[in-house]
Amino acid sequence: MNPNVAESSLLQNPLLREDVLPNFSAIKPEHIEPAINKIIAENILAIESLLENKTPDWQTLIQPLHNLNDRLDKAWAPVSHMNAVVQDDALRAAHDACLPVLSNYHTRLGQNADLFNAFQFIKSDKSFASLSVAQKKTIDNALRDFRLSGVDLDAEKKQRFSDISSRLSELSSTFSNNVLDATRAWSKLIVDDGDLSGLPETALNLASAQASAKQQQGFLLTLDAPCYIAVMTYADSRELRKEMYEAYVTRASECGPQAGSFDNSSIIEETLSLRFELAQLLGFSDYAEYSLATRMAKSPQQVADFLWSLVEPSKPAALKEMDEVRQFASAQCGLDELRNWDVAWVSEKLRESSYAIDQEKLREYFPLPRVLKGLFSVIQQLFSVEIIREHGVELWHKDAEAYCTFRDGKIIARFYIDLYARDNKRGGAWMGDCRSRRLLDDGSIQLPVAFLVCNFMPPSGEKPCLLTFSDVTTLFHEFGHGMHHMLTQVDCAPVSGINGVEWDAVELPSQFLENWCWDSSVIPMISSHYKTDEPLPIDMLEKMLAAKNFQSGLQMLRQLEFSLFDFLLHWKYSEAQSVQSVIDALRTKVAVMPVPSFNRFQNSFSHIFAGGYAAGYYSYKWAEVLSADAFAAFEESDIFDATTSHRFLAEILEKGGTDDAMNLFRNFRGREPRVDALLRHAGLIEQGDVV
Q1: Residue 631: CB partners within 8 Å, gap ≥ 6?
Q2: In the predicted model, is pLDDT for residue 5 greater than 70?
Q3: Whose CA is closest to 151, among 141, 163, 164, 161?
Q4: How far is CA 325 from the centre of its chain?
Q5: In 10 A of CB 588, how many CB atoms?
Q6: Phi and psi of 502, rounded to 5°?
Q7: Measuring CA to CA, how many Å separate 134 from each of 139, 150, 206, 467, 657?
Q8: Angle 255-258-260 from CA coordinates, rounded to 5°
């Protein structure tokens, strides 16, 4: 290509423009590699130039370095996001081609001895004392991360570390792609709606719409969460439930209807082996110990003891709950032998029988627009901010929306939402970082911008998106992450918002906000009938609250099983021990119902193999202790108490990663966290009991 043409093409590249917000509609797959390669090449040259100064300080080294990294982050954030929410083959290929380049770049920085020495020089210089708390924490974290990137290794080991890091990045993406492809590849067309007895109207409408989208007549069932959960919960056909269960739990494995097609088994084995090798290169005994270098928990044994301490009160409750399901299945459902694909269906009938709650009737009172409006009102009352939809903003899909967050009439943050399940969109729910708050060279503040993503059942015809109550808590959860990111007052990007926060504390604000969903004074704010706008009837509200802890023991134990499995995989790793044997052995101690031999849950466990939670899934429970105890402070006064909410804002949300999470929690709560509130909220101990 003519160099002038190539340069002209780069000038037109939307990823190379430093816009306030990404120009999503202009971003094409062919823009991605040239933009990332150019930014990285320019960054490397710029860093070399910065290091020529032998007496560096914050202004001459660290601030310019943050500028360089921010430029790369601004280009990559929309690419990574679009790959998750509107993926196609060309976008995937361009995204994945950049992963080794990005990994090598970050490893190169982390192993740059001259850069490490420059940071050490700033740390040891007398001017360090005059830096802000955020600046000092940024430098301390950087020095720690240099060591965790292998800066002290010899040349051969540095290269091996780099190779491992690059390969792990590739494996993570392949794992995620395989899960997405396996989910997309399975479908079942039902012609006769009689075969879908029990399915609510919302699920039937979704299946009908999915069939129409594929130019088919009838009802198309898929493994996307809204459809799968509906079938497992409501479908009267046991054979259909069994068929979908097997398809779902064998995704991306050597078993099931797609056996071997998108198999993640070898990826899991290689990932675990490389993680173990990487940890040992750095002098750690295993990957669990390595992962805890940046977390609140101080040792693998501490994490294991914590998890088993929660199993102790949870398992008896779970055994009792499962026995209730079995008895009900036999007495009321004609099922003498309860199987895994029966549990959700029988449990829903038991819930209806015990509490007279019709979940589908209930969701009619939680239309998404009403829930969003109520959520924004809760946030306004707690943190004195106003949220207003922003129009005329470039978006990646017609379902997406943009919002501004105001305080005292000034914009302090922005966020996007993308809440409906669809083809070519990763499953689950998450918050992503589009822009981080930071101080710019001209003295202005770059405002934080967040992505908030869920996979709810989309609107159907004239019916809006109607949320299950589980959907409602999911939305509050992700918005809690968003508040952490958006309400920060820290001006250093590496420790602003969620950045620099210990991984086992990052779920504190998200799980904390879920508590408001369940308050009887908040529920009227987030609910009204989608047709009549009538409030949720008192009797339905009372039944819903009464059922809050329905099967809470089973739910707790399920999460503990996931946490222990993840942690034991990385703590007790041995090439001689298969992954399946680890989870099988664990289930003999924890599970209250046998799991079919074909179940390959681990092959789609994206949190730990593609989502950053390796040896860290325990963080959900760890942070749940923090969040429950933090919410207890509001229970002791009022859930909208201005003094308490201001303290939470000032001590937790605004401070980001500028201090250890334990110190921030102590500053808010006045003491160390206690597990009692979590167990009480789950109904596993009574009010006043102390563990």
Answers
A1: 512, 515, 677, 681
A2: no
A3: 161
A4: 31
A5: 8
A6: -55, 135
A7: 9, 25, 49, 40, 8
A8: 65
Dist. CA 226–CA 207, nearest whole Å: 10
CA distance 39 to 46: 10
Q: Compute the 3-state secondary structure of the chain and give helix, strand, coil in percent, each to the nearest 5.
A: 60, 10, 30
Asked if residues 500 and 489 have their Cβ atoms less than 8 Å apart, the reply is: no
Written as one string, the DSSP assignment of 96-116 is HHHHHHHHHHHHHHHT-HHHH
Residue partners of 503: CB distance under 8 A and separation at least 6 = 291, 294, 295, 612, 613, 616, 619
Q: What tokens were used for 39? A: 């930014």
Strands 410-420 and 449-456: parallel
Structure confidence by residue, pLDDT tens digits, 268-327: 999 999 999 999 999 999 999 999 999 999 999 999 999 999 999 999 999 999 999 999
**Residue (of 501, 492, 488) closest to 58 by Cα position:** 492
CA distance 517 to 508: 16
Please name the helix (run of DSSP H) or strand (run of DSSP E) that holds residue 433, with its range, or none.
strand 430-435
pTM of structure: 0.94
Quick check: 475 and 516 in contact, CB under 8 A?
Answer: no
Q: Are 215 and 326 in contact (CB under 8 A)?
A: no
Q: At what angle do helices 368-383 and 469-486 cross, to 10 degrees?
A: 40
Rounded Cα distance between 500 and 497, Å, is: 8
Interatomic CA distance for residues 511 and 261, integer angstroms: 37
For the four alpha carbons of 465, 470, 476 and 482, in that order, the dihedral sign comes to negative
Residue type, 64: P
Handedness of CA 609, 615, 621, 626 (dihedral sign): negative
Tracing tokens 């660290």 back to the chain, one arrives at 62
What is the average pLDDT across 356-365? 93
pLDDT beyond 70 at 179: yes
CA distance 688 to 691: 10
What is the model's pLDDT at position 215? 95
| Residue reference for tokens 């681990």 | 602
Total count of residues recorded for the chain: 691
Can you give the three-state secondary structure of 182-234, one letter per residue? Answer: HHHHCEEEECCHHHHCCCCHHHHHHHHHHHHHCCCCCEEEECCHHHHHHHHHH
Cα–Cα distance for residue pair 657/140, rounded to 1 Å: 12
Q: How deeply is 276 buried, as exposed, middle or buried, from its count of CB atoms within 10 A (0-12, 13-18, 19+)?
A: buried
- Domains, the chain, in order of start with CATH, read 3-179 (1.10.1370.40), 186-249 (no CATH), 265-357+552-617 (1.10.1370.10), 368-546+620-681 (1.10.1370.40)
Pairwise CA distance, residues 485 & 452, whole Å = 11
CA 136 to chain centre: 29
Residues recognised as catalytic: 478
| Helices first, then strands: H and E counts in the chain | 27, 9
Query: How many Cβ atoms are within 10 Å of 539's Cβ, its own excluded?
Result: 9
As a whole number of Å, the CA-based R_g of the chain is 25
